[in-house]
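Batch job 17 of 40 flagged for manual review because the log was empty.
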Amino acid sequence: MKIAIHQPQYLPWPGYFNKIMQCDLFIFLDDVQYKKNEWQNRNRIKSAAGIQWLTVPVHYKFGQKINEIKIDNHILWRKDHLKSIKVNYNKAKYFYEFFVYIEELLNKEYKMLVDINVSSIIKILSYLGIDKPFKFSSELKVEGEKTDRLVNICKKLSADIYISGSGAKEYLEVEKFIDNGINVIFQEYKTPDYPQLFDEFIPNISIIDMIFNVGKEETLKLVI
């Protein structure tokens, strides 16, 4: 069985969904330390002025796990995100087809960051027609840090193939997987060019940019 493991992110880039599509079971790594100013509470879209960040405001204390992070709902962030998405994509070819999914996502109030992140991913998978089983690492009750934790998750699930992001080549201790009979496949994904609004192409932004511009069928082709 092939599994992939990744921290839950907010409106992730296309490569996140490429990883999901490659595996038999996807694990949301929700019980590791939250990293500030990374991709767990924010992502990027494209505007007429270039990159625009969509950030979920959170209450954060150093050392907290991802599934312990609460959203700061005193800030009207959901309304702002909806407005930003609508302003920047209302002229995209597939805006009206996909925007209803974004509205459903952001018209609901969430208390925990992990909930909005996972919901954003599930909404996108639903639109794309992808039905992939998933689990949360917190459900598995495994021990260990870094590579040891990933190996133990694979062993717990009897996985014999682990799909890793290419960026992990620098720190992943591959020999620990091999010693436990687990083959490691490094994901090699680069966002292909596709039609975007606002002139020059910008890669590796949220997948919603791709979906609004090219729709479901073409997005599926581009993330495989």
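Reviewer: the log was empty due to a logging misconfiguration, but the result itself is present. DSSP finds eight helices and nine strands in the chain. Unflagging and moving on to job 18.
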